[in-house]
Each structure stands twice: as C-alpha cells, then as structure tokens.
Amino acid sequence: MNKAIIIGRLTRDPEMRTTTSGVNSTSFTVAVSRNFTNQNGERDTDFINCVTWRKQAENVAKYCKKGTQVAVEGRIQTRSYDAQDGSKRYVTEIIADNVTFLGGRGAEVNDSNNYVGPEMDMATTDISEDPFKDFGSEVALSDDDLPF
Hints:
Layout: E1 4-10, E2 15-18, E3 24-37, E4 43-53, H1 54-63, E5 69-82, E6 88-102, E7 108-109, E8 115-116
Parallel strand pairs: 4-6
Antiparallel strand pairs: 1-3, 1-5, 2-3, 3-4, 5-6, 7-8
C-alpha cells in the first residue's frame, strides 16, 4: 500500500501548468515539522514536493498561497529525468488525491511565521430578550407527534 498524509504550510505560491492535452497540474511544496527535536533541541522541518491534477489542481492554485495550511493525502511517487547538463536527476513527490484547506477562511501567516486568523467580529445577543417572540403563538405537541 502506498499512502501518504501530511499536514503543513505551503512554502511558496502554487504553480499551475496545463499539459498539451489540456489537463491542469499544480505543483507546490509543503513544510512539515517533525514531531521530535534534534540534538540542539530544535524541531527540524521537511519540505515535501506535491503535485495535484485536474479540478483539485485548479482549486489549489485558486485558493492557496504561500503560508496556507493544508492537509495533503495521496501516494508517493519517484521519477527521474535527464538535466540539461546531462546528469540524471531523481524526484520524489506526493501525487495528491485530496488537498484539504486548513486554518479557516482568510487565515494567513505573518512575517514571523505565526498563524494569523481572520478577524472575529461577532455580534452579541441580549439574552434578556425572548429570541422566539416573532414566531407566533405556542405550539402544542403530544408524544405521538415526535418521530422517536
């Protein structure tokens, strides 16, 4: 079984390309912190390359940017190609089947890499006022009216 799930933040804006046959592909890199500390007491970070295709590629390109927190689910794939200098290069990446946007709408990362959520401007309700006063008269229910 080849299954990979990671959660992290995009290190740069996603790059969408279209193949000659018209299929969209988006590439992006996710920074994932390790669960343990190194010998210096610091947490190391891995930078995982990801690729997604078709509609998911369009959504990632449209709604994600550098700093967006995502959960990526897919499979690990390796491939190789010949570089311009004639050397053989190897690439390991996650082919993402599902990318979930985390952190809420309007969430971003500030310059010091701290999460900054959207402004919460919630109206308060006066609890001394009856919230159901405009619904009319009282409704009488019997046990036979209940679905359980």
